[in-house]
Write a structure and sequence with these properties.
This protein is α+β, with helices and mostly antiparallel strands. It contains 15 helices and 18 strands. The strands form four sheets. It has a seven-stranded antiparallel beta sheet with strand order 15-12-14-13-17-18-16, sandwiched between helices. It has a five-stranded antiparallel beta sheet with strand order 5-6-10-8-9. It has a four-stranded mixed beta sheet with strand order 1-2-4-3, with helices on one face. GO terms for molecular function: FAD binding; oxidoreductase activity.
C-alpha cells in the first residue's frame, strides 16, 4: 500500500505537498476550469539528482501512478494526473539555461517555458528555435509532441531540433538519450513521449541565427458578414500554400472575422516588402490590414498576446508558469491534414464558419511545409508531409464571463464538435499536443488516432523502460 507520509519524510528537504497540507492547493492550481484533477501529492525537485531521489523514493513507497508536470498546458491536465489519484513530479524548478552560440546549441532545464528559452537564445547570440505559439507552454512537453507554430513552415518543428535529452527513467536512473545513446528512448520521447518514459530534466537543442531584417507580423481581416467569404477563404487557402516558405500563415475564423495572420521571415526589408505585396495582390482588399516589422524575439510576444488564450505576457521577462491567476475554460481539438483542402470542403467550411458564435470559439489552419521530411526520420512524430495542422477551440475567460463561464462553454461545445467532425474525414487523426479524451468518441481508437503507426513500437519501448507502468495517465503509452 502506498504511504505518502513516509515518502514525504524520506525526501527530507525536497518540498512535498500532500492532500490537506498547507500549500497543496497552490501547487496543484491550474488555469483551466475544464479540468479539475486531485493528485495525492506533488514533489518539487530542483535538480536532476533530486528528481532521481524522488523517483526512487516513490518506488520504495509503493506509489502506483506518477505523472510529470512542466508548463501545465495539457488540456486534459495530464501533468496533474489526467485523472484523480496520481502523484506529481513538478519540474518547475528545473529552469537553468546555458548555450554555446558558436556551436548553435542551447541546453534548457526540463521546467523551462518556450518564451524563456526563446528570450535566452535571442539574448545569447541572436539565436532562435522554431516553436509553438504560446510562450507559457513547457519546452519538455512540446518536444514530446512536435512543436508547431509561426516559424515551422520556414524552419521545421521544435522536436527536430533536439540533439539530446537527459531523463530520469522510471527505475530512478539518470540516462542520456540521443541518436547514439539509448536511441530507442530518444525516438520515443521526440514526438510521442507524453511523460510516458520518465522525467525530462534537460534538453539540448540546435539553434539557428535569427533573421535580423525582413521580419514582420501580419494580419488581414474580413467580416464574416460579407457575402464573398467563401471566395475569400478559397483565395486564402491557395495563397497560403503558394507562398514562399518564408511566410508562416494561419487562417482563422473567430471574433466575427475571417483572418490570415502570421510571421514573415525574410532576410532583408526589400524582400519583406516584395513578399507582402505578392501575398496581398492575390487577395481581395481586406477590411483591416497590418504589416508590422519586428525583431524576431518581439514576434514571440506578439503572437502570444494576439493569437493565444494566454495574452498576459507582453514582456517575456515576466513569464512564469500559469496557476489560477487567469482562470478560463478551454477545450481544444486538432489534427493533421495530409492534402490540400478541396473546393467543396472550403465552401462548407465558409458556410459553417458564418454560423460561428462571435466570441469564445475559434477554428484555425496553420500552414506547414509538406516537403520538410527528415531523412532518416528518427522521431516518433506521428505524421509528416502535411500542408496543414487544423485546430479549433472554445475559450472563455472567467474574468469576462464570471459565473456563466461553464454555461456559456456548454452552449459552444456542440459547435466545436461539429467543426471537428467536419474536418475529420480529411485528417490523419488527432494531434497529441492538443490532447482530447473525446478522440475516443464515435467508436474511434483514441491511442491509434494520437500515436498512429508508431504505437506498437512505442509500447515495446514502454515495456522496456517502465514495465510496471509507473508513469501513466489516460493518454500515456
Amino acid at each position: 500500500m502506498a504511504n505518502t507520509k513516509e515518502l514525504k519524510k524520506a525526501l527530507g528537504d525536497i518540498p512535498v505537498f500532500l492532500i490537506g497540507d498547507d500549500g497543496y492547493d497552490e501547487h496543484i492550481a491550474t488555469w483551466n476550469t475544464y479540468t479539475d484533477r486531485k493528485p495525492i501529492g506533488v514533489a518539487i525537485p530542483k535538480s536532476t539528482a533530486e528528481v532521481a531521489r524522488v523517483v526512487q523514493a516513490i518506488r520504495r513507497a509503493g506509489i502506483p501512478r506518477v505523472t510529470v508536470r512542466g508548463g501545465g498546458h495539457s488540456f486534459e491536465a495530464l501533468g496533474l494526473g489526467g485523472a484523480d489519484g496520481a502523484f506529481i513530479i513538478d519540474t518547475v524548478q528545473l529552469d537553468t539555461l546555458t548555450s554555446d552560440p558558436a556551436r548553435d546549441t542551447i541546453t534548457a532545464g526540463g521546467g523551462c517555458l518556450l518564451g524563456q528559452v526563446a528570450l535566452y537564445a535571442w539574448q545569447h547570440g541572436r539565436k532562435m528555435l522554431p516553436m509553438g505559439t504560446c510562450p507559457t507552454v513547457g519546452l519538455a512537453g512540446q518536444i514530446q509532441c512536435g512543436g508547431y507554430g509561426f516559424y515551422t513552415r520556414t524552419y521545421g518543428t521544435l522536436t527536430d531540433r533536439v540533439l539530446s535529452v537527459e531523463v530520469v527513467t522510471p527505475d530512478g536512473r539518470v540516462r542520456t538519450a540521443s541518436d547514439k545513446e539509448n536511441a530507442d528512448l530518444f525516438f520515443a520521447i521526440r514526438g510521442a513521449g507524453t511523460g510516458s518514459f520518465g522525467v525530462i530534466t534537460s534538453v539540448t537543442l540546435r539553434t539557428n541565427d535569427a533573421p535580423v531584417e525582413g521580419v514582420a507580423v501580419f494580419s488581414l481581416r474580413w467580416s464574416l458578414d460579407r457575402q464573398d467569404i467563401p471566395d475569400i477563404l478559397k483565395k486564402l487557402h491557395d495563397a497560403s500554400v503558394a507562398s514562399p516558405l518564408t511566410v508562416n500563415p494561419m487562417v482563422i475564423i473567430w471574433l466575427g472575422v475571417l483572418e490570415i495572420a502570421g510571421v514573415i521571415l525574410e532576410d532583408s526589408a526589400a524582400k519583406l516588402d516584395a513578399t507582402w505585396k505578392a501575398l496581398t495582390d492575390t487577395l481581395p482588399a481586406a477590411d483591416t490590414s497590418s504589416l508590422t516589422p519586428r525583431d524576431l524575439i518581439d514576434t514571440v510576444a506578439d503572437i502570444g498576446t494576439t493569437q493565444t488564450s494566454a495574452p498576459w505576457y507582453a514582456d517575456l521577462r515576466d513569464l512564469k508558469r500559469e496557476g489560477s491567476e487567469h482562470k478560463r475554460f478551454m477545450k481544444i481539438k486538432a489534427g493533421f491534414v495530409p492534402t490540400l483542402l478541396p473546393d467543396d470542403f472550403l465552401a462548407k467550411l465558409a458556410a459553417f464558419g458564418q454560423t460561428q458564435p462571435r466570441s469564445g470559439v475559434r477554428v484555425q489552419l496553420l500552414g506547414l511545409d509538406p516537403e520538410r521530411i527528415p531523412s532518416p526520420d528518427t522521431t516518433s512524430i506521428k505524421v509528416r508531409g502535411c500542408p496543414w495542422l487544423m485546430g479549433m477551440s472554445v475559450w472563455l475567460p472567467v474574468a469576462e464571463y464570471g459565473a456563466e463561464t461553464e454555461a456559456e462553454a456548454k452552449r459552444r461545445l456542440p459547435w466545436l464538435n461539429q467543426a471537428y467532425e467536419l474536418f475529420y474525414p480529411l485528417t490523419k487523426g488527432g494531434y497529441l499536443g492538443d490532447d482530447d479524451y473525446d478522440e475516443a468518441n464515435h467508436g474511434r481508437d483514441m491511442m491509434a488516432s494520437f500515436y498512429g503507426e508508431h504505437l506498437d513500437k512505442l509500447q515495446v519501448i514502454k515495456a522496456k523502460y517502465d514495465p510496471s507502468r509507473l508513469f501513466s495517465h489516460p493518454l500515456s503509452v
